[in-house]
Design goal:
heterodimer, A: alpha+beta, Thrombin, subunit H, 6-stranded antiparallel barrel, 3 helices, 12 strands, about 25% strand, B: mainly alpha, Arp2/3 complex 21 kDa subunit ARPC3, 8 helices, globular, Cell shape-determining protein MreC (chain A), MreC (chain A), cell shape (chain A), Cell/Rod_MreC_2 (chain A), MreC_beta-barrel_core (chain A)
Chain lengths: ~300, ~190
């Protein structure tokens, strides 16, 4: 240190602040006069600090990710607890189901129940059908070679889709339940009332000819009926829905507008032949049905 | 100020030669506030989404400079204030030198009024600081208007002044605790 007297040092110390103030004013003026220089100085400082800022923002991102993970873990724990409770509940239901199945089996044994034969089925890919006489029909890539016959029942993943109407060697045409030519005998599951499901080319076929004292209930399940001998009883079709008062329709379970795979079942209904009954007079086949529904349709529409 | 009764205070030239470690220790103690401000400046200019960072940074810096200027000028020399102000200008977007100028003014007021301020109650010091901070923020706003040649909105400057006033008590509590710690350490 330069040896100076205390007085001089104190005087210098008092001068530092005014000098620095003057210097800062000078810098302000210089910065205003030469803006490019100031900007260059700023850029140098920013360049030097770049890695530090980078470190900070990456740390911040990591911390954010970590908190996100923690929150996610908390959510997972909650979900896990919920699933465990649900699983316990389901396990109870599983026990109930097993015991009911056992009981059912033992009851069937006691009654000498004749078991139904398991239906044979083939699965085929659906290709769009532009030809044919039907408006709502699909073509299945499985034909007589695979054992598909006219009158077999086509099921989608969760409900009835239609019936096989024509077969080729490698393809089969399936008339969907929504086609205007489709008339199916159905049963309303809650009331066990028969009805006819009439397709009208809309996504929801209508319900007709149900008993007037037991009307379909909104949300009621509709299943097939074995009245005409074409279907086995109890295949799920859909649920009842009222478009307007007095106009019940069926909302099908199967997604008929975009079918991709169909299972074609041969329930063997045609093999069931009633035994010969000599002297039995069959009911006279009614000639009217062709005209009656039409008249009704016209009358209602 | 009470005279220091120890020998070294009476005869400043005669004292045992400091070891390197002691010298480093002393330097670190003296530079602590400056390093704190530099860290705050870097932190707030980083692309981190802190709410109101643009106003909070000058508020914290002004409060820190004022506090150390009147309690411990040895921890906040004028040169350090000048360099920190310039650094703040370079990192931020204020015209070059403006922050340095304002910080030096705040530092000067704190330095020259320190013996008056030290005797006052904390609330009074806070009142003085509030006036000073408002004046500093308005001066900054005035300089910004002057350099841009048109009137800017005064609301951000007032917001900055409010932040300044609000941030002073917690910061002063923190710094009092810090230099009590340092004082305790200094005693053998």
């Amino acid at each position: 240190m330069i040896p100076v007297s205390i007085q001089v040092r104190q005087a210098l110390g008092k001068l530092v602040l005014p000098l620095l103030l003057l210097l800062s004013i000078g810098i302000i003026i210089a910065g205003q006069a030469d803006k490019p220089l100031a900007d260059k100085a700023r850029m140098y400082v920013a360049d030097a600090l770049g890695p530090l800022w980078n470190l900070m923002s990456s740390t911040q991102e990591r911390v954010l990710a970590m908190t996100d993970n923690l929150r996610e873990a908390g959510r997972l724990a909650k979900e896990n607890a919920r699933l465990k409770a649900e699983n316990e509940n389901l396990r109870r239901w599983y026990d109930v189901a097993v015991s009911l199945t056992r009981e059912n089996d033992s009851l069937k044994t006691a009654l000498h129940w004749i078991p139904e034969s398991a239906p044979a089925f083939v699965t085929g890919r659906v290709v769009a059908d532009s030809g044919g006489i039907y408006a709502r029909a699909v073509l299945l890539v499985a034909g007589t070679d695979s054992g598909v016959q006219v009158g077999n029942v086509a099921l989608a993943a969760n409900g009835l889709a239609g019936r096989v109407t024509e077969t080729g060697a490698h393809s089969a045409r399936i008339l969907l339940i929504t086609d205007i030519a489709s008339r199916l005998p159905v049963m309303l599951e809650a009331s066990h009332t028969p009805a006819i499901m009439v397709g009208d080319n809309s996504p929801m076929p209508r319900l007709m000819y149900y008993a007037q004292d037991t009307r379909p209930i909104e949300g009621e399940r509709v299943v097939t009926s074995d009245q005409a001998g074409a279907f086995p009883a109890g295949l799920p079709i859909g649920t009842v829905h009222y478009l307007s008062a007095g106009r019940p329709v069926v909302a099908p379970f199967a997604q008929l507008d975009h079918l991709s795979l169909l299972r074609v079942f041969n329930f063997g209904q045609s093999q069931i032949e009633p035994p010969e009954a000599p002297g039995h007079v069959p009911l006279a086949p009614q000639r009217k049905p062709l005209s009656l529904p039409l008249k009704n349709l016209l009358g209602q529409g | 100020m009470m005279p220091d009764p120890s020998m070294s205070a009476w005869e400043p030239e005669i004292q045992p030669r400091q070891t390197l470690w002691q010298r480093l220790d002393a330097a670190a103690r003296h530079m602590l506030p400056s390093i704190f401000i530099a860290f705050i400046i870097i932190l707030f200019s980083a692309p981190i989404p802190l709410p109101g960072a643009a106003e909070l940074l000058p508020a914290i810096v002004i409060a820190t400079v004022f506090f150390w200027s009147f309690w411990r000028p040895s921890g906040m020399p004028s040169v350090a204030v000048f360099i920190l102000g310039l650094f703040m200008d370079l990192v931020g977007f204020t015209p070059l030198g403006v922050s340095a100028f304002i910080l030096l003014l705040v530092h000067g007021v704190g330095l020259y009024a320190r013996f008056g301020l030290m005797r006052l109650h904390f609330l009074l010091v806070w009142g003085v600081f509030s006036l000073l901070a408002t004046a500093a923020c308005l001066l900054q706003w005035g300089l910004a208007c002057l350099f841009r040649f048109h009137m800017l909105d005064v609301a951000p400057a007032l917001f900055e002044a409010f932040l300044c006033i609000g941030v002073y008590p917690p910061l002063s509590a923190l710094f009092s605790w810090v230099f009590h710690m340092l004082d305790d350490k200094e005693e053998p």
